[in-house]
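FYI - complex with dinuclear copper ion, inputs then prediction.
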Amino acid sequence: MLSNLPLFPEQASTVAESVDTLYVFLVLISAFFSVLIFALLLYFAIKYRRRSDVERPAPIHGDLRLELLWIVVPLGLTMVMFIWCAKVFFHMATPPAEAIEISAVGKQWMWKFQHPSGHREINELHVPVGRAVKLTMSSEDVLHDFYVPAFRVKMDVLPGRFTTAWFEATKTGTFHLFCAEYCGTVHSGMIGKVIVMTPAAYESWLSGDAAGETMAETGAKLFGQLGCHTCHSDRSDARGPSLTGIFGREVSLQDGSRVSADENYLRESILKPNAKVVEGYRPIMPTFQGQISEAGLMQIVAYIRSLSGREGSMN
Ligand code: CUA
């Protein structure tokens, strides 16, 4: 119904409709109260205008019913908004477990993607329709923002940490991808396309050209080149904790606290090894800051994830 209005881009993901419904609800509530307030303002200004210099109205000392009304009604409305927004927000912030894991790196001024199979793309992202896709994103330089209006998905892409976004496209076609954070002189040119294909077309696109090695395989190579395996082995006398099965698990730290071993924890442990030292180990790991690219970090994380049997690939 609203897709003919230029204000409302095509709805092409599973969350698009719920985002739009919520948006329309918020606009209608705001419009209703804006009109009501301005109309009453005008009406009261005329009705209670001062008619003579000596006019002194009786003072008003309050009205409990009125007070209750303007506490209860806004409270009810804001609670409805809060619960509704939180529901949509948490749904959008929680990628389904079976999502395809694709990595995205923003840099001045382009988008670089890598599929679990190892396929790389620049300013284009091919995805299958009807499958959840989770993006793990970071930036090589400044703040960027991954924005696909048709999916109603928008997420900041930051240097120095991973952010994630997910979507499930509901129709095939080509959709705009924008950078939605001012990031320098060619910010407006930092645009791309998301190409949503049928699952069969996606499979044949993946097998179209030689992918070389998967992300996890590249990560395993990097892991070896950087010498990580010399300490992180499964042997009982290893100097570093074993990484087998660690991804997504709770880890006990030296200071007695516990953290979940997610992407950002692994990232921090590679770049700032002493920030969170695992219980029973000494802070002897050197930093790898400046030695691994953003894409390399994602590949190593993909490798460590694969050690837990969670490749996030196309099965
Ligand atoms: Cu990248 Cu704007």
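The mean pLDDT is 86. The chain is about 35% helix and 20% strand.
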